[in-house]
Amino acid sequence: MAALSSIVLLLAVLGGAATRLDNLFYDAMTRLSARPPSADIVVVAIDNRSIAEIGRWPWPRSEHATLLRRLAEAKPRAVAYDVLLVDPDRDPAVDADLAAAVALTPTLLPASFDVPGRDGAPYEIALPVRPLRAAAAGVGHVNVAFDADGVVRRAFLSQHAGDQEWPHLMELMARQTGGGPSPTWRAARPPAAAPDTPPGIVRTRPVMVAYGARPGDIRTVSFVDLMRGETPAEVLRDRLVLVGATADGLGDRYATPLSGGEEVMPGVEMQANLLDTLLSGRAVRPLDRTPLALFALAPLWVVLAGFLVLRPRANLALGLAVAAVVLIGSGLLLVFGRIWAPPAATLVALALVLPLWSWRRLEASSAFMTTELRRFAAEPDVLPTGAATARPAGEVIAQQMDLMEAALEQARDLRRFLHDVIQGLPDATVVLAADGKVLVANRAAENLFAAIAGRAPVGETLDHLAAALTPQPAADGEVETEATAPDGRTFVVRRTPLLTARGGRAGEIVRYADVTSLKAAGRQREDILQLLTHDMRSPQVSILALLDNHPVAPDLSTRLRGYARRTLDLADDFVHLSRAETASLTTEPVDMVEVALDALDDLWPQSQAKSLMVNGPDADTPLLVAGDRGLLTRTLINLLDNAIKYTEPGGRITCDVRLDESRSPPRVVCTIADTGRGMPPEEAAQVFERFRRARGEANRGVSGAGLGLAFVQTVVQRHGGAITCESRPGEGTRFEIVLPRLDQPDEPEPESDSLAALG
Fold first, then answer.
1. 89-99 confidence digits (pLDDT tens)
2. Does 232 fall in a domain?
3. Which of 207, 244, 519, 737 could bond 670 through an S-S bridge, CB–CB 3.0 to 4.6 Å?
4. Last residue of a domain, one of 514, 548, 574
5. For residue 731, what pLDDT is reported?
C-alpha cells in the first residue's frame, strides 16, 4: 500500500493530474489575499470611446506620436507601450517622427513570439521596426502563458530564442524604478538542446502573478482624453504608464483568477498586475520538482506510518489533521512565503488511502476471523453435546455471523460447564490469575476462607487469604504440600499451572483437600501396627519361652509351638505389608546380584535342612536399580522361602539376575524358579491376593498367612516394576521380577570392589 500510493502520488504530482483542483485553491487564496494595486501604475486605455472618436484600428502612427508627446509633457517615470509596431510605415518620415516621440520618455516596446513561424520555421520573432527599436529604452516579450483551463496565472520572465534571451516587458519596466524580482530569485538558464534539434523557444523563471485588481480597478485614463489634453499632468507625473488596448473586439482579453463568470481582463491590465507583483515583491515562485515531490509525499508517509501503530479512530483523526496541515501549510506558504506548493494531489491521495487501507485492514481482519472461527469450530468439543456444528452457507457476512454465534454459544456452554465442574468439586478449589488473585472459587473454598480469613476469596490475593494456614515442610520434588488450619484441620495443597493455547502461563488451580480423617486413620493404622509388633508378639514369645523352660507333653508342646509361631508369622507379615504400602522409600543404587546373594545366604540353613540344590546368579557385573535395599532383600527372601517350603527334599531352586536388552529400554530381570509341587494356572493368577495360599492336601502342613506374596507385589510395583508367576502342578513354579535399570557409569567399577561388596 505504501509503495503503490507513493508511486501513484508522485506521478500525479509531477504529471499535473490534480492541476484543476490546485488552480481552484490558488484562485481562492488569490481572491482572499488580494490588495489594491499600486497608485504608481496608470493605464492609458485604447478604449471603446477612443476607437469611436479617433477611428478604426489600427490608427495612424501619428496618433501614437501625439500621445507620446503628451505623455512626455506630464513627465512619467517610464512608459510601456503595449502596442505591436512591427511593420514599417510607407513613409519613413512617419516612423522617424514616432521614434523621436519614443525617445522623449523612457519607453519600452513589446516583441511577440509566434510559434510556429512562417515558411516552416519553428518560431518567428516580431520586433518593433528598427527606428523605434533604436529609440526605445528596451524591448521585452509580452507572451502570455495559459494554464490548462485557459486562465492566466503565471508569467515567464525570460524567453530564450536560440542564444538570445528576451526579458519580459514588465521586468524591464520594474528595472526602470530600480525594482525587479525578489533578491533571492535564482535566474534559470535555458536547457542545452541536442545538436540535431532545431532551435526553439525556451521559457524560464516562472512567477505566479499576485493579482490585486479586478478588470477596471487599476487607475485608467482614456487615450483620447490624454490626446486632447483633458488629463491633468499630476495624474501621470512620475508614474509608471502602461498604454494598451481595452476596447471590445481587439482580442486582447484574458481570464484571470479574479475573473468572475464571463468577466475577462484586458491584456494591458494583466500586465499592470504583473508589474505590481514585481514591484511589491509578491511574486510567487512554484516549487521545483524535488521539493514539490517531498512536500507531497511527506504527509502521505506520516499517515502510512500511523497505520502501523494507531487504532482506526486515531488513524482517521491523524489523516484529517495531516490533510488540514497540508491545506493550511500550502495557503501560508502562498500568502506569506510567496511559494506555490500545490496541495490537491496530496489531499486526494490521503482521501483515497484512508478508505483503501481501512478496506484492506477490514478484509484481512475478516479473513482472519473467518479462518480462526472455522478452526475453533473444527476443534473437538469437550462438552458432550453430541451435535456436530454445521458448516454455514450463504452470504459471506452471514457465514461469519453464524460462525461467531456458534463460537460464542460454545464458549458460553464451556464457561458454564467449567463453572459447574469447579462448583461440584468436593475439595476447596480456587482459580488464580497470573498476578495471584482469585478469579473463581467454589462453595467449599468460600466456606474454608470464610472460616480462616473472614472474607470472600474472589478478588483477593491467595497469599493473604492463606496466611492463617501453617504450611508443613515438603520433601524435595513433591508437588503437594500440607497445611494446618487454626481449628486443627489438615489440608493437602496441590497447585496446577494453567497454560494458554500458546504455552504461556495464565494462572493456577489450587486445591485444598481436607485429609484430617485420613490423618486420623493413619494414626490408627500406626497404633494397630504398634499393637501387632509389640502387644501381640509379646505373649507369643512368652509362650515359646515357657515351653522351652517348663516340661510339657511333647504332643501338646508341638501344637502350642505351632500356634505361637503361626501367630508371630502372621503379625510379622501384616506389619511388613503395611509398611511396604505406606512407608516412604529410601532409594539408593542397589545391585540386584548382591541382593540375591544376600537372600540366598539368609536362607542357606533352611535349604540345607531339606537337601535342596540352590543355584545363585552368575552375573559378572553389577546390575543396578534405584530402590530400597531392605525391601528388595525382603522381597527375594519371601520368594526363596516359598520355593523352599513348596519344594520336596532333593529338589532344585534357581535364582538368576540378568539384563534383558531385548526390552526398550533394557530392564533388570530377577527370576526365582523351583522344581516343587506347582499349582494350576488359574490358582497362579490369584497368588498375589491377600491371604491366598496354595491349596491341596500336600500343602496343608506348610506354614504361612498368605501375605508374603502380596508384600512382594507391593514392593515391586512401588519400585516401578512388575512381577509374574508361572506354574503347573508337578512342574514347579517360576516368579519373574522386572525392574527399571539405573543408568550405569561410563566406566564399570573395578572387579575387586565388586567382590569386596559381595563379601
1. 888 899 899 99
2. yes
3. 737
4. 514
5. 87
